[in-house]
Design brief:
The complex is a heterotrimer.
Chain A: E1 9-18, E2 21-31, E3 36-40, H1 47-54, E4 62-67, E5 70-71, H2 77-87, E6 88-91, H3 103-113, H4 118-131, H5 147-159, E7 165-169, H6 177-193, E8 197-201, H7 205-208, E9 213-218, E10 221-224, H8 225-228
Parallel strand pairs in A: 3-8, 3-9, 6-7, 7-8
Antiparallel strand pairs in A: 1-2, 1-4, 4-5, 9-10
Chain B: H1 3-19, H2 21-61, E1 79-83, E2 86-88, E3 91-100, E4 119-122, H3 124-131, H4 136-141, E5 145-149, E6 161-166, E7 179-182, H5 197-221, H6 226-238, H7 243-278, H8 295-316, E8 320-323, E9 326-329, H9 339-352, H10 367-395, H11 401-412, H12 414-445, E10 446-448, E11 458-462, H13 468-476, E12 481-493, E13 502-508, H14 510-514, E14 517-518, E15 527-530, H15 541-544, E16 550-553, E17 566-569, E18 575-579, E19 591-594, E20 608-615, H16 622-633, E21 638-641, E22 645-647, H17 649-683, H18 685-693, H19 698-734, H20 743-771
Parallel strand pairs in B: 3-6, 4-5, 13-19, 15-18
Antiparallel strand pairs in B: 1-3, 1-7, 2-3, 4-6, 8-9, 10-22, 11-20, 11-21, 12-13, 12-16, 12-20, 14-18, 15-19, 16-17
Chain C: H1 3-11, E1 16-17, H2 18-30, H3 37-49, E2 53-59, E3 66-71, H4 73-84, H5 94-106, H6 111-135, H7 138-163, H8 165-173
Antiparallel strand pairs in C: 1-3, 2-3
Helix pairs in contact in C: 1-2, 1-3, 1-4, 2-3, 6-7
The chains are: A alpha/beta, B alpha+beta, C mainly alpha.
């Protein structure tokens, strides 16, 4: 099988087991640059595992993942880490900001991991914080800001490296509707403006409505609804 | 508040400690292990005086050669004992030759039956050594058939090397020195030497220095898992318990851990006691049965530890408001204030100050003031350290990502960081001070032996009836011996009994004599008088060497046994010689020097033979080869290995105690560091996984963990050095000893502290790497 | 709700009499609105005419003569198509959806597929609304949110149903 033409990131026949539990059982996926794809499905269906595999966080047991013409599934851990640093961005449900760093330091962190100097990294961080309307929080620590603000800081952090693919795992899961929608708007706007692809794992339809199409994962198998309908 | 209410809340806390699910259990067990280790160390410490006392008693009970003036007549209940002890490598071997003179001769403790000639009974440790390959050289020296082992009552330690061998005809060698006739074992006049105040001071300080970090450690142990505990308490508030209740419940939880810790401690102690029987630490071994803590002290430990646990918990909760919906640290904790923290060490210094200059001669030190002062100074470390860590960390600047993560983390919770290293800082401060004190008083307790190691490294003392020349030849053939200077010596006085004037008599060939005095010309048959030797003190050799003057070789002294008292008159033609610091460098040799032909045969029985050996020390086991050769010449030959200095035995014991204790304490603290480190890592599992997700290198996170431990430790060690040097200086001044800093000791101690950090970091790396695996993200 | 498709679906499990069909329909879907037999009769005639069912036999028992109907291949295809066609998102569509789900179960089809298809259709609508909301003024936003929340409610019900499918399957099989 070959990846669909023009896709930035695609996966074929992914299989991944955690002990006796089969988390992925022949899942498929593909996303184009600038596309927002929602990954939906009941809890325990394997959607987070799909995201982790696609992002190169977890190697699949079998199957191929192709990113930008390179086979992700054949890379070793440090190559994948390097790729995550340079090409991917991440937003998690609970922000996962480093509690002892200030917000601006948190946003600058991925750039600094790439070797950018502290000053430059924090300047770039501030630009993104302005876009996500949280630049007034720069000196605050994550413990001192609200959940919605924290999540926007996390989105800024995920975008600061200008990633080609943004992985968002239940990014609004811990927020109320209003904050959730705002975060989704900012996230998708920002991603579209940089032509980044977004893999959005969510179980909420209103969040998924910010996507271009959705892929349903059930019992470790994926179903691309656009191709079916 | 009724007692019943208190009891009920405490009981509830106890129940929570054990029923809080896996998490509760883990917490309780962690606390218990921490407290248990502390308790075990406490019990061990309280047992050490007892162990030393038992060792002392056993030693006294087997004392045989007492240099007593009383000469027993031969009887059917007497025994002639000869000290035939030896050294093997770095261990000394206690040896006695036994020659019972009648059927009722006393048996030494632990021995059931006298070994016959050619037989011996040995300690279990010696038996093992003799049977091993490495003991072959010793076996050659002790060829007798092993017919039994010495029982525990005859030994002072499980690893002691000792033997009793059978002998006959020892009576003729009795000299009131290393061979004696006795009718019972045991010191007839057990020494109750007045403890030297300086030694007492040392012992006190050693105990305080060891126990303070243990206390700090226990305080830290009951706080294990504090953050989760706080969350649980918040949940309790939610269901309606008031602030006081939650505090008491928390105290109950801590108490449960502490009580369990007591049990653990007892078990650890028992295990440690057993292990102590198999281990030999710094050449001291004990039997498990020696290690019995005094019941009163044990009871005190049993009551004090749980009580302390409760108090510490309540103290730790003082700045915390537990609200139904979570734990609020009372505002942003006020910046730590310096003044009261400085007060503690200053108060300590104030307590020690009055005793400055007391020295050794001006009577005792006030034990309470010493203990109080040292404790306050050391506790001052734990008070000052959080302030220092907070202040310094707040000013730490930029650096790499790992550095930034570590510094920011420390800024957030500098208190936790400081608490973790408090124990190490206290231990190191105390150890540095002690080290200084040891080195300072070293001069007083270490005699300079004045032996010049360049000329000769071993001396063999031969029994009087042996020809030196024959022995020297045999020794010369031993592998590793480069040169042998043999001579005989004795002492003469101007009266047969209690002489007023006297000097040494030395017999040797010209080569040997030249090695100890400046002689112009020498032929066999010459007799020299050495003029102006320091060794002779004020004796005027010109008068002593006046021809015809009468002397008695080997004179007797009042209270001593009657000796040989062989008369000798100074002949004509005594040549003059000048002293030199030669073979016996450090001292010279005075008196009369005989060439062999110049010596009347009559004098021979009054002289002892000596052989000085120049060794090739690169030959393996050269010392033991010489010892074995000497034993082959005569079992009663005594070998002495020269060292430039020698310490008094008691001093060694204290030093040993310090090292053992410091090693245990640091290991203990290392474990607690590791436990809290791991706990912290577990709580950050998700965050770590997230960091890994966006590509953080393992190296970066590992480094940040290292910095996170290293920064507070570095500060702690710095403070420890300052406080340790201060305390050391004060202690030295108290003992009237010139102040000198033992930088090697400081470096060693801080090095050990740093080593602990490194070890903790290394041990926490595997779990860190495991936690950093992406599976950590998988919890939804 | 299409009575024709429902009756066809009921026939898939085996031939039935007209009265049988009415009883089965009432039991499973009728609830408070039982079917009139006339409706069954006329519906069946229309299906017969369209070749979706055939008369399997006539019984002359004690009462009036009874026709036994059986589904044809064309009928099965028709049911298949109907089930696969997503319903227009609209308020109170549950009954149609419910019918489809239960029928899918009765006929051992994957009900989850139907849910996925429906969700996809809903999302299509929601995307349009979301887009309009992002570009529109406050009034637009309010209107769109109103619709979005209703659609989301549908989907929540769908998700819940999907989660309960196993239980439902047991209940239906009884």
């Amino acid at each position: 099988m070959t990846p669909p033409a023009g896709s930035l990131l695609s996966a074929e026949q992914l299989r991944k087991a955690y002990g006796p539990t089969l988390a992925l059982d022949g899942a498929e996926f593909s996303i184009h640059p600038g596309e927002v794809v929602a990954v939906m499905g009941p809890s325990g269906s394997g959607k987070s595992t799909l995201l982790h595999c696609l992002a190169g966080i977890v190697p699949p047991d079998s199957g191929t993942i192709t990113y930008n013409g390179r086979e992700l599934s054949a890379m070793n851990d440090s190559q994948r880490s390097a790729l995550r640093r340079s090409d991917f961005g991440f937003v998690f449900q609970f922000g996962q900001l480093v509690p002892e760093l200030t917000c601006v330091e948190n946003v600058a962190l991925p750039l600094r991991l790439n070797g950018t100097s502290r000053k430059e990294a924090e300047r770039a961080a501030l630009t993104w914080m302005e876009r996500l309307e949280v630049d007034d929080l720069r000196k605050k620590r994550p413990g001192e800001v609200s959940g919605g603000q924290g999540q926007r800081v996390a989105v800024a952090r995920s975008l600061v490296t200008d990633p080609r693919v943004l992985f968002a795992d239940e990014p609004t899961g811990a927020l109320d509707s209003l904050n959730g929608e705002r975060v989704m708007e900012l996230l998708t706007d920002a991603a579209r403006s940089t032509n980044a692809a977004v893999v959005l794992v969510t179980h909420e339809a209103r969040v998924a409505a910010y996507s271009d199409r959705e892929v349903v994962v059930r019992d470790g198998k994926s179903r691309d609804m656009e191709r079916v309908v | 508040m009724s007692v019943r209410q208190w009891a009920r809340d405490l009981a509830m806390g106890v129940r929570f400690a054990f029923t809080g699910g896996r998490e509760g259990w883990t917490r309780a067990v962690l606390t218990a292990v921490g407290v248990g280790l502390g308790v075990a160390l406490l019990l061990l410490t309280t047992a050490i005086p007892n162990a030393l006392a038992v060792r002392h008693d056993r030693e006294a009970a087997r004392t045989d050669i007492t240099f007593s003036s009383e000469q027993l007549p031969k009887a059917d209940d007497t025994l002639v004992v000869a000290d035939v002890g030896s050294d093997f490598r770095d261990d000394s071997v206690r040896g006695r030759a036994l020659d019972p003179e009648g059927p009722r001769a006393p048996l030494p403790p632990g021995v059931e039956k006298f070994p016959a000639v050619g037989e011996m009974v040995v300690s279990p440790a010696l038996k093992k050594l003799l049977e091993s390959d490495s003991g072959a050289l010793l076996r050659e020296r002790l060829p007798d058939r092993i017919v039994g082992t010495i029982g525990e009552s005859g030994l002072i330690g499980s690893a002691e090397l000792a033997f009793y061998r059978g002998a006959d005809d020892l009576a003729s060698h009795i000299d009131g020195g290393s061979i004696a006739r006795i009718d019972r074992f045991g010191d007839p006049d057990p020494s109750s030497e007045r403890s030297d105040p300086v030694l007492l001071l040392l012992i006190l300080v050693v105990f305080v220095v060891l126990l303070t970090p243990v206390a700090v450690f226990i305080a830290a142990a009951v706080r294990f898992g504090g953050e989760r505990r706080d969350r649980r308490l918040a949940a309790l508030r939610l269901v309606g318990s008031d602030g006081g209740m939650t505090r008491r419940i928390a105290a109950g939880e801590a108490m449960a851990g502490a009580v369990l810790g007591l049990v653990f401690g007892a078990v650890f102690f028992m295990i440690g006691r057993r292990l102590a029987g198999t281990a030999e630490v710094f050449r001291i071994s004990v039997f498990p049965s020696y290690l019995n803590p005094s019941p009163l002290l044990a009871l005190l430990v049993g009551v004090a530890v749980p009580a302390a646990a409760v108090l510490v918990t309540l103290f730790a909760l003082r700045g915390v408001v537990i609200e139904p919906l979570g734990v609020v640290r009372a505002g942003r904790p006020a910046r730590r204030r310096l003044w009261w923290r400085l007060l503690l060490p200053l108060a300590g210094l104030a307590m020690l100050y009055p005793m400055i200059g007391n020295g050794r001669d001006n009577g005792d030190f006030n034990q309470y003031l010493v203990t109080g002062g040292v404790v306050l100074l050391l506790v001052g470390v734990t008070a000052l350290l959080p302030w220092i860590v907070e202040t310094v960390v707040a000013r730490l600047g930029s650096g790499g990502v790992a550095w930034q993560l570590a510094v920011r983390r420390l800024q957030m919770s500098s208190g936790t960081a400081a608490r973790m290293v408090n124990g190490i800082a206290v231990a190191v401060a105390g150890a540095i001070a002690l080290q200084m004190l040891f080195v300072g008083v070293d001069d007083d307790y270490t005699r300079s032996t004045g032996q010049d190691l360049a000329q000769a490294q071993m001396e063999v003392v031969l029994p009087s009836d042996l020809l030196v020349a024959t022995a020297a030849d045999k020794l010369r053939d031993t592998e590793g011996v480069k040169a042998v200077y043999g001579y005989s010596e004795g002492y003469l006085g101007d009266r047969p009994k209690d002489p007023e004037h006297g000097t040494t008599v030395t017999v040797g060939d010209c080569a040997s004599l030249r090695a100890m005095a400046r002689i112009d010309s020498c032929t066999d048959g010459d007799l020299f008088a050495v003029h102006g030797a320091e060794w002779d003190g004020d004796e005027d050799m010109t008068k002593l060497a006046a021809p015809g003057r009468k002397f008695y070789v080997d004179p007797s002294y009042e209270g001593g046994p009657k000796s040989k008292e062989i008369p000798w008159a100074v002949p004509q033609g005594v040549k003059a010689a000048k002293p030199r610091k030669g073979l016996l460098a450090g001292t010279d040799r005075g008196g009369f020097l005989f060439t062999p032909k110049a010596m009347p045969d009559a004098l021979a029985p009054a002289l002892t033979g000596h052989a000085f050996l120049k060794l090739d020390e690169s030959v393996a086991d050269v010392h033991d080869r010489v010892r074995t050769a000497a034993a082959g010449i005569d079992p009663l030959a005594d070998t002495v290995t020269w060292a430039e200095t020698e310490r008094t035995g008691r001093f060694d014991a204290i030093r040993t105690g310090l090292f053992v204790g410091a090693a245990c304490v640091l290991a203990l603290i290392g474990v607690s560091l590791l436990v809290s480190q791991l706990e912290q890592l577990r709580e950050r599992k998700k965050l770590l996984s997230a960091l890994v997700a966006f590509g953080t290198r393992r190296r970066t996170l590992s480094l940040s963990v290292l910095w996170q431990t290293a920064i507070p430790i570095a500060l702690g060690l710095l403070l420890a050095t300052v406080v340790g040097l201060t305390l050391g200086t004060v202690l030295l001044k108290m003992t009237n000893t010139p102040v000198g800093v033992d930088w090697a000791g400081v470096l060693t101690m801080t090095g050990i502290g740093a080593g602990v950090v490194l070890a903790v970091t290394l041990f926490s790396l595997p779990p860190l790497l495991r936690l950093m695996r992406p599976e950590g993200l998988r919890t939804e | 709700m299409s009575i024709g498709h429902t009756l066809l679906g009921l026939l898939e499990s085996g031939p039935r009499h007209g009265y049988d069909l009415k009883r089965a329909f009432d039991e499973k879907f009728g609830h408070d609105r039982p079917l009139h037999y006339g409706q069954v009769y006329s519906t069946m005639s229309r299906l017969l005419k369209n070749g979706l069912v055939v008369v399997d036999g006539i019984e002359a028992g004690g009462g009036p003569e009874r026709k036994r109907y059986a589904i044809t291949d064309a009928g099965i295809t028709d049911v298949q198509q109907w089930l696969a066609t997503p319903e227009k998102p609209e308020p109170y569509l549950q009954s149609t959806l419910y019918t489809k789900v239960v029928l899918a179960l009765l006929t051992h089809r994957e009900a989850a597929d139907i849910l996925d298809t429906q969700r996809s259709e809903h999302l299509r609508g929601m995307r349009i609304l979301t887009d309009r909301k992002r570009k529109g003024d406050l009034a637009d936003q309010l209107i769109c949110d109103h619709a979005l929340f209703h659609l989301e409610a549908d989907l929540r019900w769908l998700e819940l149903t999907a989660a309960r499918l196993d239980k439902l399957r047991e209940a239906v099989a009884r």
